[in-house]
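Q: Could you fold this chain for me?
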Amino acid sequence: MKTLLLLRHAKSSWDDAGQSDHDRPLNSRGKRDAPRIGKLLADEALVPDVILASSACRAQMTAATVAERCGFADEVGRCPEFYLAPPEAYIATVATLPEDVHRVLVVGHNPGMSLLLQALTGNSETFPTAALAQVEIAIDCWTALAGNGSGRLINFWRPRELDES
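A: Sure. Below is the predicted structure, expressed as structure tokens.
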């Protein structure tokens, strides 16, 4: 059994109109939500073995903050192929991970995150910024990962719902 955690980057800033999309940092809401998702991972005993994130500034900032807050000790993987990627790009990258990795967090963008969740589980969810999905997949090796709907959505957290708890 493997666990794939899907995280859309936290809310980014649009303050600098001349800044490229790839280089946009987190805004104040993003800086508030990212550590809360990290705490959630720690509280739920879901600290990942590996974190892979889009190379976009907002995704890297989200991943670094989540990693620090949940107690993840390794480096966050920088994945340019995740920038505005379709589900197949995430699946292809995760499928290269070694067998002894059991829980992976991928940090990316929409619509890729929504489409990936749907490809893995058949579930369609609105994926706001800093939303986190926990997907269990009945495979022993990541090489068997496929977007065939065989995964099971265990939990789906939206930051606004964390405010209510």
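A (continued): The chain has five helices and six strands.
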